[in-house]
Design brief:
The protein has 358 residues and is of the alpha+beta class. Helix content is 38%, strand content 11%. It has 11 helices and 9 strands. Strands 1-2-3-5-4 form a 5-stranded antiparallel sheet, covered by helices on one side. A two-stranded antiparallel sheet has the order 6-9. A hairpin with a 4-residue loop joins strand 2 and strand 3 (58-63). The radius of gyration is 20 Å and the shape is globular.
Length: 358
């Protein structure tokens, strides 16, 4: 059994024009041999990721999702530009090989990047990967260290100062995600009014400004096959920007399902954070504060806002995807229960607002 992350059959409704992309790639790379094959990676409910293979070379193609998408969302060329700018100072980013704005090829913008051969720790680790509890703890902290390292990158020297929209990042996120949720609401999903109002009323002062990933999870990192505790890649830079690092951490913790969480939350789990050896959410917060100078500006007990924000933002993302499924703009059955997931996340937000229990 291979440990290397494998692509599978392209999902219904998400095929791309094989002859067109074949012609494009042969124009870009003159040494390609053999016939083209296209597969799709299972992960990703937003920008779509394909494996394109020839006899002598493999590529990754990233394109926006099909169906109605939010204005300014899923900008794959922006994603590629950020990756190119960060690569010299954050080496775990895959190399961008080509970008394309010609919609006559596959009907949208797309980019081509190198394929990193490695392990992606998705919902469950591969059965062939045997990690003991100490190894699992080390893997957990190694992954967190990559988030911390990103937050410490000098964005001025990286040429990414133009990502900033000025002051007011916290309020822009609350207002922006509230608007996106409202625009994507369907009749079978809760209105989140109490949650949105609470976020408006409890916005903290921004701690600092740094490069944030905005979707940092275990299933967006690549592990070295021969040393699975080593991170060789960080993927999915679609939502990267300049912002508040604690909001980035809150986003990551929204996906952090730990061993003692309830059954429904366990069903939403997308990464192996439930395993013995993994840090709990509170331990993640403590670890992050210990490793950064932000600990002088905020107490770990003040993290409730960032947790509620992360859960609400996740609900808005889920709802935007569910909107496409609800209105039959995508056939992907993975999204069939996303409305129920959004309703669950509202309840989780309300409980957290009342109790403050991380």
């Amino acid at each position: 059994m291979t440990l290397i992350d494998q692509a599978g059959t392209v999902r219904a409704g998400e095929t791309i024009n094989t002859p067109h992309i074949d012609t494009y790639l042969r124009q870009q790379f003159s040494n390609l041999q053999g016939e083209i094959t296209i597969k799709q990676f299972a992960g990703g409910a937003s920008n779509l990721t394909y494996l394109i293979s020839y006899a002598n070379q493999e590529f990754i193609l990233r394109r926006p999702p099909f169906g109605k998408i939010a204005k300014s969302a899923h900008d794959v060329l922006r994603e590629a530009n950020i990756m190119q700018a960060l690569k010299p100072v954050y080496h775990e980013i895959p190399t961008i090989l080509a970008t394309c704005q010609d919609h006559s090829i596959i009907g949208c913008d797309f980019y081509i990047m190198e394929r990193l051969l490695g392990i992606i720790p998705r919902k469950d680790l591969p059965k062939a990967l045997q990690l003991n509890q100490d190894d699992t703890r080390q893997l957990c902290t190694n992954v967190l260290d990559k988030l911390i390292a990103l937050h410490q990158v000098d964005h001025q020297n990286a040429g990414l100062a133009n990502l900033a929209k000025g002051d007011g990042y916290v309020s822009r996120q609350i207002n922006g995600w509230s608007k996106r949720f409202i625009n994507a609401k369907t009749d079978d999903v809760a209105d989140f009014n109490e949650v949105m109002q609470w976020l408006q009323n409890n916005m903290p002062t921004q701690t600092t400004t740094c490069i944030i990933h905005n979707d940092f999870r275990f299933d967006n990192v690549v592990l070295e096959v021969n040393n699975p505790l080593k991170i060789i890649g960080v993927l999915d830079w679609e939502m990267a920007t300049l912002g508040d690092p604690l909001m980035d951490l809150g986003n990551s913790l929204a996906y952090w399902v730990q061993a003692n969480d309830d059954t429904f939350f366990q069903q939403l789990r997308r990464q192996p954070t439930h395993l013995p050896g993994m840090l709990t959410r509170q331990q993640v917060i403590d670890y992050y504060f210990e490793k950064t100078n932000i600990k002088n500006n905020i107490k770990t007990s003040d993290f409730t806002f960032y947790m509620v924000y992360g859960l609400f933002r996740l609900a808005a993302i889920i709802q935007q995807i569910y909107y496409r499924y609800y209105h039959k703009q995508t056939q992907d059955q993975r999204f069939a229960n996303f409305g129920q997931a959004a309703n669950y996340l509202e309840k989780r937000c309300l409980t957290l607002m009342k109790t403050g229990n991380i």
